[in-house]
Amino acid sequence: MGYSQFVYDLMYKNDYQMTARFTATSFRKTLEKHMDRNEVLFAEPYAAAQSLKNDWTRLASTYGCIMVVLSRETLTIRPHWFAKWLISLLSLDLCHKIPITNIRGVTERGKWFSYGKIELHFVTTDGKNQRILLYMKKYQEFIGTVKNAMYK
Fold this sequence. Notes:
The protein is an alpha+beta fold. The protein has one domain: Pleckstrin-homology domain (PH domain)/Phosphotyrosine-binding domain (PTB) (PH-domain like, Roll), CATH 2.30.29.30. It has 6 helices and 7 strands, in the order H-H-H-E-H-E-E-H-E-E-E-E-H. A 7-stranded antiparallel beta sheet has the order 4-3-2-1-7-6-5. A hairpin with a 2-residue loop joins strand 2 and strand 3. The longest helix is centred in the C-terminal third of the chain and has 12 residues. The radius of gyration is 15 Å and the shape is globular. The N and C termini lie far apart (30 Å).
């Protein structure tokens, strides 16, 4: 199974057996091993996120449940399989596949413990402006990579 297929299966399919085969350590090793070979520019498998869509979505955050993958064409923000059902049930608005051309800005907003707090501003496929907060350990690398991808 290639890396791109692995990430696609992990993020889009509800194949719990396939997901369960990969522990946190093996996922991290696989991610780092194949980063340069494919279109993945940045990946953080255990981020946190908070949607700023409305008051309800601002109440919840998802410590360690969100996967952020930046490729040459898209930024994908998805919950892991174990949190996907709850995030969907509560309508927390934390599943996004954003074309790079729709990203309007990425700004550092400080730190939260060992995580950098980043505000991402983008336009949805419906044409609405939206903001989301991402909490990542590799936040400076993420900001630089997104800005480079936006201006290419």
